[in-house]
Amino acid sequence: MKVFPFTFLVSEDKSVVSERFESPNFYPYLHRHEEWQITYIEHGTGTLIAGNDMQHFKSGDLFVIGSGLPHLFKNAIDEAQNQVNLVSSHSVYFDVDAKLGPLFSLPEMKTVKKFLARNKNGFKISEEHAEMIYSLMKAIDKSIGVKLLSNFVDLMLALQTIEEHFTPICSDMFKLGKIDSDGDRLVRIVNYISDNYHKAITLEDVSDIAFMTPQAFCRYFKKHTGHTFVSYLNEVRINYARKSLILDGKLDHISSIAYKVGFSSIPNFNRVFKSIVGKSPKAYIHDFEMLTG
User: Fold this and answer.
1) Distance between CA 40 and CA 91 in Å, rounded?
2) 229-288 residue pLDDT tens
3) What residue segments make up the domains of the chain, in order of their start?
4) How many CB atoms lie within 10 A of CB 51?
5) pTM to 2 decimals?
6) How far is it, in rounded angstroms, from Cα 56 to Cα 43?
7) Rg for the chain (alpha carbons), in Å?
8) Which of 166-175, 206-215, 220-229 ranks highest by mean pLDDT?
């Protein structure tokens, strides 16, 4: 799969780009750009491919993607509901070597530049700090002139202070030249699971999609996702089940939802749901109803 270069149209009076996005789908191509990208998921679920790794994302997640790192946000489409589910995000883009080069060359910015170099491929910010960083992103979105630059520096300093609360989104060992083959394989796997999660998917099925033996696929998948194939598939299915439980909101629909998302056994669905969500489907519906009135 080709990695598409992506160029931003930056206005002459801004050195930091703030972009709000709402659409049925995120940008569908694996792509890279020189700008660093900070993206907050306002609404939506799916899979992020970053370099040769992939992981789930959901509303409230916040990712920082390093300069030149190939990436793709693949949103989950709920075909069973026969409706378009809009996804929305807010992103901030900046290039430390272009317009912001003189700023990052200042002695006072030396520690910030070293911080970015240490985390060159990017990271996910912990949930307890995501809202704080998002508020600084919104301040950038609403500002112009010197105030925008001041708010951007505040954002950089805030990120630096919570470095211990990051999770890398791609290994430091990742080499850009590997993405053409690994990115192709990862996108095929994600697409296949997204399209067929409601069916019986075997290890042999997904290994064939990846053009690998089942043994090699298991090693590859664990290395790049941190999941076994079964645990990843279960998370995809449970994510769809949670959405359906909220939409239906009826206890007698739990069994039909379990079968709809690909489980062949109600006890197994209940067990997997509780292991991932931390509560039973019934308790999940009850707690949601209590919160929403």
Assistant:
1) 6
2) 999 899 889 988 887 887 765 666 899 999 999 999 999 999 999 999 899 999 988 877
3) 4-168, 179-292
4) 27
5) 0.70
6) 13
7) 20
8) 206-215
Determine phi and psi for 41, rounding to 5 degrees.
-85, 105
Which among 72, 20, 35 is positioned nearest to 51, based on CA atoms? 72
Domains 4-168 and 179-292 equal at CATH topology level: no
CA pair distance 261, 197, nearest whole angstrom: 7
Strands (E), the chain: 4-5, 17-23, 31-32, 36-43, 46-50, 53-57, 62-65, 71-75, 87-94, 122-125, 166-168
Architecture field, domain 4-168: Sandwich (2.60)
Range 270-283 burial, b when 16+ CB lie within 10 A, else e: bebbeebbeeebee
**DSSP string over 107-172:** GGGHHHHHHHHHTTTEEEE-HHHHHHHHHHHHHHHT--HHHHHHHHHHHHHHHHHTGGGEEESS-T
The topology under which CATH files domain 179-292 is Arc Repressor Mutant, subunit A (1.10.10)
Q: What is the dihedral sign for C-alpha 194, 200, 202, 205?
A: negative
Neighbours of 26 (CB within 10 A): 20
pLDDT tens profile 117-175: 999 989 999 999 999 999 999 999 999 999 999 999 999 999 999 999 999 887 665 65
